[in-house]
Write a structure and sequence with these properties.
Layout: H1 7-15, H2 19-24, E1 41-45, H3 52-62, E2 73-78, H4 91-100, E3 105-110, E4 119-120, E5 133-137, E6 139-140, E7 154-158, H5 165-173, E8 180-184, E9 192-196, E10 202-207, E11 217-221, E12 227-232, E13 237-240, E14 248-253, H6 257-263, H7 279-296, E15 301-305, H8 309-312, H9 315-319, E16 327-331, H10 354-357, E17 362-366, H11 372-383
Parallel strand pairs: 1-2, 2-3, 3-5, 4-6, 5-7, 7-8, 8-10, 9-11, 10-12, 11-13, 12-14, 14-15, 15-16, 16-17
Length: 390
C-alpha cells in the first residue's frame, strides 16, 4: 500500500527516519531503489562508513548536481580519516549542490587534529539566499568578498578559523535578520571580534585559553539584544553599546588580569588578597572596565562568576554600577587555586549599593557554604534586609 503512494509522500515518510534507515529501504524493491536520493534532509557521519572513500562515494551520489529536489537540512560530521585523504576537496561540490538546491539548515562538524588542516567552506556559502540556520565546528572560512544571507536567523561558529577580523565583521553585518549568534573562539585566536547587528537578540561569546594576547577584544553593538553571555579570560578590551534594561546578562570576565595573577602567583601565599597587582599594570585597564560597566549598567537580570570580582575588585562597589538590577546570580564554584576568588571578595564598603535598597528582588548564590566569604556575603545581604536563596 505504501508503495502505491506518490514519490513526494514516500520521501516525506523516509525523512522521518534516520539517514541510515532510509537508505536501507532501497533494497525493498526496484520502486524504492532511488527514493532515498530525493530526501529533503540528510545526516551523514564519516564514521558510519567502512572507509573514507565509501563515505565520499556516498556523498557524491546524494549531491548529484543534476538532481533538482530541494535539500532543506544537511548535517555533516567529518572525523579524522586514516585513508590518506587530507584535503576536503569533496566538500566544495557537495555544499555548492546544497546551496543550489535551496538548503535551509546547514551543520558542518569537522573534528580536525594538529596534523590536519581545517576544512574550508566554499565562498558560495556567503550568498545562500535560502539559508536559515548555519552551524559550523572546526572549519575555515574564506576571505569574505560579497556576503548576503537575507534569511539567516541562527549562526553558531565554534572554533572556526577566520582569515581576518573583517571577514567575521562582514559576515554578521550582512545577515539582516540574524537573531541568535554563538561564537566559540579557537585557543590561539587573538582577534578583535566586532558584532554589529540591528536584529540580533541572543549572543553567546566564549574565549577561554591559556594563551594571552594584547590585541584580543570584543565590540558589541546590538540594540535589540535580549540575552548576552560572555565567558572570556583572554580579552582585555570590551566595548558594549548600551544594553537595554530587559537584557539578561551572564558573564565571566577577567580583563587580562588572570594573566597577571598567574605570572605573579608564587609571590603570594594562599591568603593573597584582591588588588595585590602592580598598579602600573592595572591602571591602564581601569578605563576599559569603567567603559564596559557603563555599557551594561541598565541591565536588570545578571549572573556573574566569582572570578569576575578579581577585575571589579569589590562586589558592593561593582553593584553600585547597576541601579536598576532586579535579579542577581553569583556563581562561585572553585575548581582550582586560580578560581578560588570567592575568598577574596571585600565587603568593607561603607556605602550600600542603590539597587540593594530599591530595585533588587532576588539573589541566588551558587557556592560551597564552607567559604568564609560566602557566609560574610549572606550576612551582608541580611544586614541590608535582603532575602537570599542559597
Amino acid at each position: 500500500m505504501i508503495s502505491q503512494l506518490p514519490d513526494h509522500l514516500i520521501c516525506h515518510i523516509l525523512s522521518l527516519l534516520s539517514t541510515k534507515e532510509a537508505v536501507k529501504t532501497s533494497v525493498l524493491s526496484t520502486r524504492w531503489r532511488q527514493l532515498w536520493l530525493w530526501l529533503p534532509s540528510l545526516e551523514l557521519k564519516s564514521r558510519d562508513f567502512s572507509d573514507f572513500n565509501n563515505f565520499m562515494s556516498f556523498g557524491y551520489r546524494f549531491f548529484d548536481s543534476n538532481r533538482v529536489s530541494c535539500k532543506h537540512k544537511l548535517k555533516l560530521t567529518i572525523h579524522r580519516n586514516e585513508d590518506g585523504v587530507k584535503d576536503a576537496y569533496y566538500l566544495t561540490p557537495w555544499l555548492k549542490a546544497a546551496v543550489k538546491h535551496k538548503i535551509q539548515h546547514l551543520h558542518v562538524h569537522s573534528y580536525s587534529y594538529a596534523d590536519h588542516r581545517f576544512h574550508k567552506m566554499p565562498q558560495r556559502l556567503y550568498t545562500c539566499h535560502t539559508l536559515v540556520c548555519l552551524k559550523l565546528f572546526q572549519v575555515t572560512l574564506d576571505d569574505a568578498g560579497f556576503v548576503f544571507l537575507p534569511k539567516l536567523k541562527t549562526m553558531h561558529l565554534e572554533y572556526v578559523k577566520f582569515p581576518n577580523e573583517a571577514t567575521f565583521e562582514t559576515l554578521v553585518l550582512c545577515c539582516p535578520v540574524l537573531e541568535d549568534l554563538k561564537i566559540f573562539v579557537a585557543n590561539d585566536d587573538g582577534k578583535v571580534f566586532r558584532v554589529h547587528s540591528l536584529s540580533l537578540k541572543r549572543l553567546t561569546f566564549e574565549r577561554v585559553s591559556s594563551f594571552f594576547s594584547d590585541s584580543a577584544g570584543v565590540v558589541i553593538d546590538a540594540p535589540r539584544l535580549c540575552f548576552l553571555k560572555i565567558n572570556d579570560n583572554v580579552s582585555k578590551r570590551f566595548i558594549v553599546d548600551s544594553l537595554d534594561s530587559n537584557t539578561i546578562l551572564d558573564m565571566s570576565l577577567v580583563f587580562g588580569l588572570e594573566e597577571v595573577d598567574k605570572t605573579n602567583w608564587d609571590e603570594f601565599d594562599d591568603g593573597a588578597v584582591l588588588g595585590e597587582f602592580d598598579e602600573s599594570i592595572v591602571s591602564p585597564m581601569r578605563s576599559s572596565i569603567s567603559d564596559f560597566l557603563s555599557g551594561i549598567s541598565r541591565v536588570s537580570d545578571m549572573s556573574i562568576c566569582a572570578r569576575t570580582f578579581k577585575s571589579f575588585q569589590w562586589l558592593p562597589n561593582f553593584l553600585e554600577s547597576f541601579p536598576n538590577l532586579k535579579s542577581l546570580s553569583l556563581v562561585c564554584i572553585a575548581k582550582n587555586v586560580y578560581d578560588d576568588y570567592i575568598n577574596e571578595i571585600n565587603f568593607s564598603s561603607s556605602s550600600v549599593p542603590e539597587c540593594l535598597l530599591s530595585s533588587l528582588e532576588f539573589v541566588e548564590i551558587i557556592a560551597p557554604i564552607y567559604y568564609a566569604a560566602v557566609v560574610e556575603l549572606i550576612n551582608y545581604l541580611l544586614k541590608n534586609e535582603f532575602f537570599v536563596d542559597i
